[in-house]
Amino acid sequence: MPEIITDPTDPRVADFRDLKAGDRPAGTPRGTGPVIVEGVPAVQRLLASPYRVRAVLGVPGRVAALGLPDDVPAYEADKWVLSEVIGFRLTRGVVASADRRPPADLDGLLTGPDPAAPRRLAVLEALNDAENLGSIARSAVALGVDGLLLDPRCADPLYRRSVRVSMGHVLSLPFAVLPGWPVGLDRLHDAGYLTVALTPAADAVDLADVDPRAHPRTAMLLGAEGPGLTPEAQAAARVRARIPMRSGVDSLGVAAAAAVAFASLR
After folding, report:
1. Among 63, 92, 151, 221, which one has the highest count of C-beta atoms within 10 angstroms of its own C-beta?
2. Any idea what the Cα angle at residue 253 is, between residues 234 and 127, rounded to 5°?
3. 99, 124, 111, 123: which is closest to 34 by C-alpha?
4. Which residue range forms the structural domain that includes residue 52?
5. Can you list the alpha helix ranges (DSSP code H) found in 98-184?
6. Predicted TM-score (pTM) of this structure
7. What is the pLDDT of residues 100-109, one digit of tens each?
8. CA 166 to chain CA mean position, Å
9. Are residues 153 and 225 in the same domain?
10. Among 176, 177, 173, 175, CA closest to 49
């Protein structure tokens, strides 16, 4: 049974304190600290993931309904105490923390468990908006992408807002950092990937012309909202491709464009 929390300063719920200060507990350096997961569906995905759950906190009824294993510390608090702990009103009723896991081994991610199987990767350049990253991760899981490769400037895919927007799906998606950007793309080429840079440029090929049956290993490059991919990243890719659009519309948001591109490459 969950234990009752009545004091917002109770050390047992320290993982959740003052989350309004950012995407992680106040004073925690970027890329460190516990993974924070909000909402019943996302916490259920956390429980099914390889991440070790540290604690679960929620309003009465929500935590017990999760059917947590006996070894997971579980706490309940009324909505006022819960809001005072985390620093904002949690409409999803439950929040969990988990230990971080290190990024995946890059070579292992490129190869996959079956080196002969088709592979799809998403490669993100300077995508520093956590919510866009979370939305891309959700689409990636839904549409058959096997992992994320991030350049060194990307946001942390395990930020609270990224995990929330992904509905917890990012926890099942392996990711790795690709150093030496963009020359590091040669490691994908050596592993047999066709790298496709997504751009609205008029001289890019139609995305529909990139036949996934002819390229069983494909990596889709996506840039940040607004600036898009740098010229250097586009030049390093094997193909520049665009999503055909109605006249007068120059581009889609990066999360929407990613979903279209992932579906096209299935």
Report:
1. 221
2. 55
3. 99
4. 3-98
5. 106-111, 130-142, 160-165
6. 0.93
7. 999 999 999 9
8. 6
9. yes
10. 173
